Amino acid sequence: MELVTEKLLGFVMMLTRISAFFMVAPVFSWNTIPLRVKVTMTFLITIFFSMIKPPGVSPDGVRMLEAILLISNEAIYGLALGLIVSLVFTTVKLCGQIIEQQMGLTIASILDPTTGEMGGPLCELIEMIFILLFLSANGHHLFLLVISRSFEVFPAGTIPSIAILASGIIKAGSTLLIAGLRLAGPMLAALLLLMVVLAVLARIAPEMNILFISLPLQVGLGLLMVGIFLPFISEFVTEFADWMGKLLPL
Questions:
Q1: Helix-helix angle 140-153:64-89, to 10 degrees
Q2: Domain boundaries of the chain, sorted by first residue
Q3: What are the tens digits of pLDDT across the range 36-91?
Q4: Pick from 7, 15, 210, 250: CA 20 to 30 A from residue 146's CA?
Q5: Which residues, in sequence order, are bridge partners of residue 111?
Q6: Residue 237 in contact with residue 139, Cβ under 8 Å?
Q7: What is the mean pLDDT of residues 117-124?
Q8: Shortest CA distance to 146 belongs to which of 22, 238, 58?
Q9: CB-CB neighbours of 27 under 10 Å
């Protein structure tokens, strides 16, 4: 009976970390995936890792309060890993939001079926294309690799300190802002150049209605730049994997 209890505690700790990770990780946390599929997938992955990754703390003689603390620590670590991955993954969406704001398309909004939130059409298009490229490159295997490495470095029952987890989340947030601006940089430069040209035209021909012609020019130039940019978005998939390897507390 004690052996069963020890095995069960180790399994619960691993299940808690994996469940917390998938709760906030992109793709797996989407509303479009049925809850039964999520639960089944989480249990199968936990069973797999429980057979090859033994717990780092022996459950023998662990009291109830200690077991609750161990499970809580696993939940914190799993949420931190998922949050870091989600922040890096949101870079493409932030890039689309910046472009939409400069193009004047912030008024238009549609429902994002994956998260249930409202978003811009151009932002959703860029994000969907990136997701398709990410999944076609077996990017979902990268999430399983993150879980595997986390159990190698910090087996169930052992996690990094809160300071290390907080540092990883802060760095991921900084990377999100910097990478989003970098991805949107060429389109921001083109739209800024358009504004300069329109300002010069307004001085040369004051009778020209610059406000009337600026919006279609902004939208047209923005769509043209996005069309040029989209073929290069696949390179971000490799960068995404590199950033996760550097930012995750593994």
A1: 140
A2: 2-247
A3: 888 888 888 888 888 877 665 665 566 777 778 888 888 888 888 888 888 888 88
A4: 7
A5: 118
A6: yes
A7: 76
A8: 22
A9: 18
Pairwise CA distance, residues 101 & 175, whole Å: 20
8 Å CB contact between 71 and 157: no
What distance in Å separates the CA atoms of residue 128 and residue 24, rounded to the nearest whole number? Answer: 18
**For 113, what's the count of Cα atoms within 13 Å in the CB-facing half-sphere?**
5
For the record, the structure tokens of 175 come out as 């990377």
Kindly give, in sequence order, each residue whose CB lies less than 8 Å from that of residue 19, ignoring residues fewer than 6 positions away.
Answer: 42, 78
C-beta of residue 235 within 8 angstroms of C-beta of residue 208: no
Query: What region, left, alpha or beta, does residue 196 occupy, with left being phi > 0 and alpha being psi -120 to 50 degrees?
Result: alpha
What does the pLDDT read at residue 4? 53
Secondary structure of residue 139 in the 3-state scheme? coil
What average pLDDT does range 124-148 have in this prediction? Answer: 81
Please report, for residues 130, 148, 157, 206, the alpha-carbon distance to residue 68 in angstroms, rounded to integers and kept in the order given: 39, 23, 11, 72
24-34: per-residue pLDDT in tens? 888 888 877 88
pLDDT > 80? residue 113: no
Give the pLDDT band of residue 3 (cuts 50, 70, 90). very low
Q: Is the pTM of this model over 0.90?
A: no
8-state DSSP, 231: G
Residue 207 DSSP class: T
Look up residue 165 and give its two tokens: 């987890």
Closest to 244 measured CA to CA, from 53, 94, 14, 86: 86
Spatial CB neighbours of 190, under 8 Å, sequence gap ≥ 6: 221, 225
